[in-house]
């Protein structure tokens, strides 16, 4: 049985649970409990504070975990990372009061900076040759300048609206983060095999999320142009329509290219374009 630690309640919780469910693993919801067992995969889920997850996986209390890279690297165990999961994307940034003078990172020489990430920030500043005074605080970092605790801050940013609301402006990106799957480095053969099975499923889910299935009708005369636009996994499937001179084309398109490609398909004469979500995609 594999033990997977996920965040009990916070920004990672819902996406972590959704990913496990989309991997076809069922379990009873247990928001008030500390753990649940999956019903159709040898997996136990532990619900923890995100800060505790890297240490528990390092010590082998949990075999696997889902945690932000920011927390993983700050905990000092970057080597536990197995795979990026593509959600909870955010960045760790330096910010200063809007009116403060700032030319470059050198402007932070000798300045006091409040942060919950002294290790990541310390390494970054050392790399830039900047010496600053770090104040480690565990929360509400963005109010530190206004209460006189520090002259700058380093904190998690996603949209920047919290910074703006506190009269701060973002000046440097220190670290980019997403949720990652982590694993203990001494898993036995049986657990390693289960981890491989889980990874296979997670990759199929992620690939499916990034792609769409597309079906359209096109005049035979436009087929070459359509094929150019839709390379597909191997090549598109083409079947004749009952109406003479028309074909149905089926393929897979990447989510990022999707709007661009569909408008071009229309331009070359495609009609009746249907786009469907893909549930799993196995390469
Ligand atoms: P816990 O109580 O478990 O310690 P927390 O308050 O430390 O929770 P959350 O705010 O739930 O943590 O954030 C968890 C993780 O989600 C962060 O470590 C970061 O990786 C990511 N994250 C934080 N803020 C954002 C955001 N605004 N957008 C996207 N991801 C974020
Ligand atoms: Mg935390």
From TrEMBL:
Annotated GO biological process: L-histidine biosynthetic process
Description of how activity is regulated: Feedback inhibited by histidine.
Keyword Glycosyltransferase: yes
Family: Belongs to the ATP phosphoribosyltransferase family. Long subfamily.
GO cellular component, one term: cytoplasm
Keyword field contains Amino-acid biosynthesis: yes
Record's keyword terms, sorted: Amino-acid biosynthesis, ATP-binding, Cytoplasm, Glycosyltransferase, Histidine biosynthesis, Magnesium, Metal-binding, Nucleotide-binding, Transferase
Main location: cytoplasm
NCBIfam families xref list: hisG, HisG_C-term
Protein name: ATP phosphoribosyltransferase
Record function comment: Catalyzes the condensation of ATP and 5-phosphoribose 1-diphosphate to form N'-(5'-phosphoribosyl)-ATP (PR-ATP). Has a crucial role in the pathway because the rate of histidine biosynthesis seems to be controlled primarily by regulation of HisG enzymatic activity.
SUPFAM superfamilies for the chain: GlnB-like, Periplasmic binding protein-like II
Sequence ranges assigned to domain Histidine biosynthesis HisG C-terminal in this UniProt record: 208-280
Domain ATP phosphoribosyltransferase catalytic span(s) in chain numbering: 49-203
Needed co-factor(s): Mg(2+)
